[in-house]
Design goal:
single chain, about 325 residues, alpha/beta, Pectate Lyase C-like, about 30% strand, globular
């Protein structure tokens, strides 16, 4: 029999070859997994290098009422289109090449005349109408470029289970319209930037703004919720930064578009643009009896609660625990 020393000499090269093969296989497996993960159904590119040159063409190509997700990758460019995602186009995802390089924009506004010579109104001014359930967007800027001309909506969301991650919403008055159907419309915004002047986050949906930056321009009202009385939650801001280039003490946290408006800020850092009183009753003292406006551990100069209106609330620690994502979004796991 060969000695132990001789056997070790023979096995060493074999073990080395095996280890090299194993490392190579693992590396190939990782690369393959990454390749599989990045798979798009359609690519939009203005230069013609994708499947479509416009975003609306890609939306039109999505199969009707599809249960599987349809992923649309949008390459760098400013796409001036008035977009509509119909209710029959469900589970659609937009992924932009980068948040600053992919801009979906249009310039309608409420007082603009339509073909019949009538003002189009706030809802019709939207640059992007979202009616399909399960829509998600990542790394995209949504804009209404009409400027400071009154109500001019960038995005109007009328569906359920809608999620935005690392997106920007640009405009002035009425930038983001969470139109929805009250509690039946759940919306989740993660790491987003939202800017505007008057009522620039408004509507009836149940919506969570998580780690977002809310940027106030000129002065006005951050929110104008129209929460139905049947909804337990309206707007909830979690760990957000509230600032802007507006003058000091020029912004209210919110005012009620409808009598049962609900808006809560939890662990938010607020700059000095926030008015000490915090909230406005929209010229109707009766609203003070029905709205629910609250904060928990607001920080920063604008987070001082000592001069808040007496009809707003400061949550206790136990009360703040009622504002978990699972409870607010009624079982929808928006973080998946």
């Amino acid at each position: 029999m060969a000695s132990e020393k001789t056997m070790n000499k023979l096995l060493s090269p074999i073990l080395l070859i095996f280890m090299l093969w194993l490392l190579s296989s693992c590396s190939k497996g990782q690369t393959s997994a990454k390749t599989i993960a990045i798979k798009y159904d359609f690519v939009v590119a203005k230069d013609g290098s994708g499947d479509f040159k416009t975003v609306q063409e890609a939306i039109n190509a999505v199969p009707e009422v599809r249960k599987n997700r349809t992923v649309i990758y949008i390459k760098t460019g400013v796409y001036k289109e008035k977009l509509n995602l119909p209710a029959t186009k469900t589970n659609v995802t937009f992924i932009g090449q980068s948040v600053d390089s992919v801009v979906l924009t249009y310039d309608d506004y409420a007082s603009k005349k339509n073909i019949f010579g009538e003002e189009m109104g706030t809802s019709a001014s939207a640059s992007f109408f979202i009616h399909g359930d399960g829509f998600t967007a990542e790394n995209i800027t949504f804009e209404n470029s009409a400027g400071p001309v009154g109500q001019a909506v960038a995005v109007r969301v009328a569906s359920d289970k809608v999620k935005f991650v690392n997106c920007k919403f640009l405009g002035f008055q009425d930038t983001l319209y969470t139109w929805g159907y009250g509690a039946s419309s759940r919306q989740y915004y993660k790491n987003c930037y939202i800017e505007g002047t008057v009522d620039f986050i408004f509507g009836s949906s149940t919506a969570v703004f998580d780690d977002c930056r809310i940027f106030g321009k000129r002065g006005g009202f951050l929110t104008a919720a129209s929460t139905p009385d049947s909804s337990k939650y309206g707007y909830v801001f979690l760990n957000c930064k509230i600032d802007g280039d507006a003058p000091p003490e020029s912004f209210y946290l919110g005012r009620p578009w409808r009598p049962y408006a609900k808006t809560v800020f939890i662990n938010c850092l607020m700059s000095g643009i926030i008015k000490p009183e915090g909230w406005d009753n929209w010229r109707n003292p009766e609203n003070e009896k029905t709205v629910f406006y609250a904060e928990y551990k607001s920080g920063g100069k604008g987070g001082d609660s000592s001069k808040r209106v007496n009809w707003s609330h400061q949550l206790t620690e136990n009360e703040s625990k009622e504002y978990s994502l699972n409870k607010i979004l009624n079982g929808w796991d928006a973080v998946d």
